[in-house]
Prior knowledge:
By secondary structure, this protein is an alpha/beta fold. It has 14 helices and eleven strands. It has helices at 28-36, 52-65, 90-99, 116-126, 140-149, 173-186, 202-211, 220-223, 232-240, 244-247, 253-256, 275-281, 286-296, 327-348, and strands spanning 16-19, 40-46, 76-84, 101-108, 132-137, 154-158, 164-167, 193-196, 215-218, 248-251, 267-272. An eight-stranded parallel β-barrel has the order 1-2-3-4-5-6-8-9, surrounded by seven helices. It has a three-stranded antiparallel β-sheet with strand order 7-11-10. Helix 5 links the parallel strand 5 and strand 6. Helix 1 packs across helix 2 (52-65), helix 3 (90-99) runs parallel beside helix 4 (116-126) and helix 5 packs parallel to helix 6. It is globular, with a radius of gyration of 19 Å. The mean pLDDT is 96.
Amino acid sequence: xxxxxxxxxxxxxxxxxxxxxxxxxxxxxxxxxxxxxxxxxxxxxxxxxxxxxxxxxxxxxxxxxxxxxxxxxxxxxxxxxxxxxxxxxxxxxxxxxxxxxxxxxxxxxxxxxxxxxxxxxxxxxxxxxxxxxxxxxxxxxxxxxxxxxxxxxxxxxxxxxxxxxxxxxxxxxxxxxxxxxxxxxxxxxxxxxxxxxxxxxxxxxxxxxxxxxxxxxxxxxxxxxxxxxxxxxxxxxxxxxxxxxxxxxxxxxxxxxxxxxxxxxxxxxxxxxxxxxxxxxxxxxxxxxxxxxxxxxxxxxxxxxxxxxxxxxxxxxxxxxxxxxxxxxxxxxxxxxxxxxxxxxxxxx
Length: 349
């Protein structure tokens, strides 16, 4: 099914590579660059939809300026929008996508899975079904429930290696993907799945497809994209860090230190271990940590690093990232790497 996306998203090149909707990172330039290169870019609306209308307008202008043009259905932007549903405003979201219709919306982290039902209904009605519904899950049980109730067009399966926010307790992709695929098959649910978490190159793409995924999503890899609007200190950390399984950690402290308190109880975030995390482990109060974090925001690029306090969200694949490159080059290298592996497997089989 790796070519199953081209009907609804005619610009994508198989196998599908999605640029994840990363808050304050996945803005119009990165998102449109991904779709223009044959991937699938998602704008990040996150938990605050107040700027979504202007972000979509900016993306629409960039799409219009693309040469060659990005193939898409008439009146549909060749990109998606990702929501963190626990904090998003449905009315603002609907108003924005009526003006600029995206090819897909991506739902993530509702307080209750049933909260997604009015979102899915509203999005489908607002765009007459032109906008497809993607839902991110992190367990087999979530996947089954969402498949039965929301009936999404695509399921995004996030494994525990993923950077940024996710379930506190979940499996890695190597068991999560095949178990979900088997469960969907038993339900006769023909829903494509996209694997996310720890994938940064063609080897990860090949592995995900072998496990039964129909495509992949990368987030951390695009933090080292030229189009990523992040501080140099943040980007330097992405290039510096190795051995991501021990140099990153899942924790709530990076939210607590920044005063972001609304995430559902089942969620935390994976980021690079730094002084904020170390002090929390040593017993520092959240209040003191937050105070020091606020001071660190005034240090510019020096606020990041092993002795810094600023958050560097990253997945365990971060150690495989060595260079900042344009989005187009990142995607091209991933596909070429995958193709070389496919040829090698054919020769040896």
